Amino acid sequence: MPNILSALIWLPVIGALAIALLPQHLSKRGAAIVSSAVLILDFLLLRQFDTNIPVFQLTENLPWLENLGLNYSLGVDGLSLPLVVLNGLLTWLIICFCERQIKERSQLFQVLMLLIHAGVSGAILSTNTLLFVLFYEIELIPLYLVIAVWGGAQRSYAAMKFLIFTAISGILILVGFLALGWLTANPTPIFDYSTLQTISLPLEVQITLLLVLLLGFSIKAPFVPFHTWLPDTYVESTTPTVMMLGGIVAKLGTYGLFRFCVGLFPDAWSLLSPYIAGWAGLGVLYGTMIAIAQKDIKRMVAYSSIGHMSYILLAAAAATPLSLVGGIAQMVSHGLVLALLFYLVGVIEEKVGTRDLDVLNGLLNPLRGLPTTSALLILGGMASAGIPGLVGFIAEFLVFQGSFTKFPIPTIFAIIGTGLTAVYFVILLNRTCFGKLDNATAYYPKVSGLEHLPALILTGIIVFLGIQPTWLTRWSERATVQISDRLPLEVIANQNLKSLTYEKISLAFTKDVQ
To answer: Residue 442 has what pLDDT?
Structure first.
């Protein structure tokens, strides 16, 4: 199918414009048709993708502002493909099944969700760094609106905080890419990703540009200590909004980390990687410890996200093919599990009327509680804790396996964090699902099959990918080998997938052949 990548970006935009003109009673059906069509295109993209090709495929290149180096350049590889499909899946679930929670101005909400989807897909598929920034910023305004219009009591504060942090992130990334383009100008600035990979810059310049981009993407992800916008934004957002925001939008930060920080500055990244790995290990412990202290189950899940995103930072720091595959798998796993948990928390809040752990109890009661919701919540907690047989296990295992030989101590911190994840989910599940219901007040409304459907779909995918992890990892193997091969370190063959054994000899990156 020609121009399938452009279709993934512009079909939602055209659909959003059409839905804005439809009568109110037809808008939901129109949005469902558009999101379903996009998801079908995602599956067609999977069929067309060749896992043996490590470079960009299905590329599209159109001249735009050539004097500025800005061209409409799209491509997909093993790093971007899983996130594009995740974006389509979550958008489809939200529009078709979760939008019922939006009681007012649902037509506007549908339009904004489709625009957010288009911005995220455009950023992930861009192979021109300026085009990436353009799409990166496009999704900011509709996200701000869905938080500010449909959020909770403190929605204005949360939306403004999100806007400020994300705007700073975008400015830093733009400055980094502009500086990189100007430094490589000959005679016009270069912003094409593949061309930038072939250009060698002095180490001091690499470090400076890397730090600017690393800061920008760390705010978006977010990593500690740039995470302060996340708890307020997640807690004040509606369930569909937080599913989109935590499930895929925040992954633009980790995607940028892999694509641009590791991919464009291999020498500088290798030099700074020990410090980045230590940062990741501490981030895992911080996120999990803060989550344990929470009383609000939605805030607990929000803080758990901080710790789990730090696994991806650890994978990037090690930058072995195995850890990078694990990092990409963790992006998808985290998106699926977080969307499931936030959806179930939203159902509990809607039916019970509270998110307070000191009030909730006995929801697993088969007669008067929310037994199916509680069972799915238990499974979501197990997936987040990395229990074998679920997608969280294979993602975390690959990260740990690929990172341990390079950075054993930060990896041990991350493994401890996995154990602490089990602690706070045991606390959440014990207080929420078990115990005795109050006979005077506990007559909760039943959850319909349609209300359970999004959680059942996400649960099915989480279990399937946990049992058949190659369906998740095989797309990225070639691309991750290509990224790690650019690092100035010795490559050693592994029986399943090439992995790297690192040893820092000196600041000059002296190679020690094992």
So the answer is: 62
- Structure token digits, residue 240: 């569909």
> Within 13 Å, how many C-alpha atoms sit on residue 176's CB side?
27
DSSP 497: S
Please name the residue that has the structure tokens 């403190």: 154
What is the separation of C-alpha 213 from the centre of its chain, rounded to a whole number of angstroms? Answer: 18
Share of the chain above pLDDT 70, in %: 94
Query: Per residue, what are the HEC states of 120-159?
Result: HHHHHHECEHHHHHHHHHHCHHHHHHHHHHHCCCCHHHHH
The answer to whether 348 and 425 are in contact (CB under 8 A) is no
* pLDDT value at residue 163: 93
Q: Radius of gyration over alpha carbons of the chain, in Å?
A: 22
What is the rounded distance in angstroms from the CA atom of residue 501 to the CA atom of residue 407? 10
Give the 3-state secondary structure of residue 331: helix
Residues near 89 by Cβ (< 8 Å), separated by ≥ 6?
A: 39, 42, 461
CA distance 326 to 340: 20
pLDDT digits (tens, 9 = 90+) for 84-99: 999 999 999 999 988 7
DSSP state, residue 98: I
Q: What are phi and psi of 132, to 5 degrees?
A: -60, -50
Element housing 91 (H / E):
helix 81-93
Within 10 angstroms of residue 200's Cβ, the number of other Cβ atoms is 8
Q: pLDDT tens, 241-256?
A: 999 999 999 999 999 9
Closest CA to 399 of 479, 289, 464, 321: 321
Q: For the chain, what is the total number of helices (H) and then of strands (E)?
A: 22, 4
DSSP designation for 224: T
User: pLDDT per residue over 334-363, tens digit each?
Assistant: 999 999 999 999 999 988 888 888 888 888
Domain ranges of the chain: 1-264, 265-514
How many of the other CB atoms lie within 10 Å of CB of 342? 28
